[in-house]
Amino acid sequence: QIDLPVLKKWRERCKEEHGYHCKPLLPSPYEPKHRPDEGSLPFRVIDVVDDRVIPAPRNWQYVALSYVWGGAVPFRLKRADISYTQANCPSFESSYASLHRKKLPRTIQDAMFVVELLEERYLWIDCLCIVQDDAEELKANIHSMDRIFSAAQLTIVGASGHDANAGLPGLYPKTRYVQPITGSVDGIGIAQIEPTLRLEHSVWGFRGWT
């Protein structure tokens, strides 16, 4: 099972030693769009507290999820899913989409739970944070995946399994394969198979981005 205190320690160490040098602020095209004439691309995140897709707040930090879709993504954000807090005056700023967490694929559910465990609030996932039937928005986001992931505070990699229902091994007891230790060097355990080889030969390793 994953060691949550270790994950938090890694995150804090990154902040202390690297700061914003390895995590640039999201480029200006992704600033929330307040007026149609601003020409900026709307950028949404999942609020894991309220289970909603919302416009990213200013000065926000978010976690990103890199995973494999496969055939297990029953819900993809579309224009028909968008509601507005001000129905008589719809705008990007007042837009939101409600999520039913239990109906989402297991990997997405697990990622939302990890964000909560890390005491973060916002999560970016491609199928839920990009309006899939908006050709302009979809194209712009696909062409900027590198910037979206580089601007994330951290990225959760769901490299296990063949689709979005694989989940995140180690999040719950007895859900993670542990490699047998075959030796040690200076007290560091040596596994039989290099973990990076598993990534290179996984379905995730052959995906289109990240």
From TrEMBL:
Domain of life the protein comes from: Eukaryota
Entry protein name: HET-domain-containing protein
Lineage: Eukaryota, Fungi, Dikarya, Ascomycota, Pezizomycotina
Pfam families: HET
InterPro entries for this protein: HET (IPR010730)
Residues covered by the Heterokaryon incompatibility domain: 62-210
